[in-house]
Amino acid sequence: MAYSGTLTCAPGIASDVDGDSVTYGYYWSVNNSPVAATSETLDNNSFQASSLVACAITPHDGEE
């Protein structure tokens, strides 16, 4: 059975001590396998209703 919605991975609030703007990298996996999605949403064509879906977010400030 297919899930009829879209999943959204939303970060908390991030700040940078020297004032740089913060962007985010999104990494999705379905059933422990990476998927090609790199935005904050995952289209319902990427998983089934019974799938194990995970999202990780990495903040970036343009500096190391």
For the biggest β-sheet, the strand order reads 3-2-5
Structural class category: mainly beta
Ends apart, CA distance between termini? 44 Å
Number of helical regions: 0
Question: Strands, helices and their partners?
Answer:
Layout: E1 7-8, E2 23-30, E3 33-34, E4 41-42, E5 53-60
Antiparallel strand pairs: 1-4, 2-3, 2-5
Can you describe this structure?
- The chain contains no helices and 5 strands.
- The chain has 64 residues and is an all-beta fold.
- A 3-stranded antiparallel sheet has the order 3-2-5, with no helix packed on it.
- Strand 2 (23-30) and strand 3 form a beta hairpin.
- The radius of gyration is 14 Å and the shape is elongated.
- The mean pLDDT is 87.
Offer a few descriptive terms.
two-stranded antiparallel sheet, mainly beta, 64 residues, three-stranded antiparallel β-sheet, 5 strands
Task: Summarize the structure in short.
The chain is mainly β.
